[in-house]
Design brief:
seven-stranded mixed beta sheet, 25% strand, 40% helix
Length: 257
């Protein structure tokens, strides 16, 4: 509900809407008039760090994030909603304030698809802090990332209180298990650190699958702890069924509230 104006009290008006400060000043009863805001503000928060460049199938994680973000931007055009964008790596790379209009949304789509980041790391906490600082009104926040970053729980909790936050973790199937291909050198895309690993060692593969699988399994429960909805995405899967299931479930839940 948005405040629109103050007008004189008329018989039948809700007395709870009386503005007592104005009434005392003017000597007659005045009430506050509000209008319901029906348009949404959608914020697309997209991770453009170097880890997103990884992909073992036809799409990298960043390409999938860009495609899904663009779907939501087109949806905002159709619904005449405001849409804004934050692209982040180890710092906020680009901020486009929310606005309506086809040309504005097309600019966001163009930036998401073709932006070249300067940073390589991932600072989720910094991106969330920036979002909370520049977005005062409640918004639907769609955050697309692999969420491979140091502790950001505090900022996540604050954002979840202020906004309708939807976490969209993106994974690649090759990240979940090591192939048996002998000794290979792994390089961290964000730090450049290299590590020689013998993937033919079964114990190494099992330990890797256990630890990484556990981390991916725990991620949704961590979001739920803060009341955050989640849409899990994988580079080897069609994202449309996942989006449909999510919005169908959310619609049902809201209708029961």
């Amino acid at each position: 509900m948005n405040f629109e104006e103050v007008r004189e009290y008329q018989p039948g008006d809700d007395v709870r809407a009386i503005d007592w400060n104005v009434t005392a000043r003017m000597g007659d009863a005045f009430i506050k008039k509000f209008t319901e805001e029906r348009e949404l503000t959608v914020m697309l928060v997209v991770d453009v760090s170097a880890s997103g460049e990884f992909g073992s199938v036809h799409l990298s994680k960043r390409e999938l994030a860009a495609e899904v973000a663009c779907v939501f931007a087109f949806s905002a055009i159709k619904n005449n909603d405001k849409v804004g964008c934050i692209l982040f790596s180890d710092h906020v790379e680009l901020f486009i304030p929310p606005a309506k209009g086809r040309s504005h949304s097309l600019r966001i789509i163009r930036e998401i698809l073709f932006f070249e980041p300067k940073g390589r790391g991932t600072d989720l906490a910094g991106a969330l802090e920036f979002l909370n600082r520049v977005t005062s009104r409640r918004a639907v926040v769609l955050m697309l990332s692999d969420f491979q970053a140091p502790d950001y729980a505090k900022q996540l909790r604050v954002t979840a209180r202020r906004h309708d936050l939807v976490a969209m973790p993106i994974a690649d199937p090759r990240e979940l298990e090591l192939p048996d291909v002998g000794k290979i050198v792994f390089e961290d895309a964000e730090t450049g650190e290299r590590l020689l690993v013998n993937t033919s060692d079964r114990r190494t593969r099992v330990r890797y699958a256990t630890e990484v699988g556990g981390w991916h399994s725990d991620l949704p429960s961590g979001f739920r702890r803060f009341g955050i909805d989640t849409i899990g995405l994988q580079t080897n899967q069609d994202y449309v069924p996942a989006l449909r299931r999510f919005f169908s479930t959310r619609e049902h839940r809201l209708s029961m509230a």
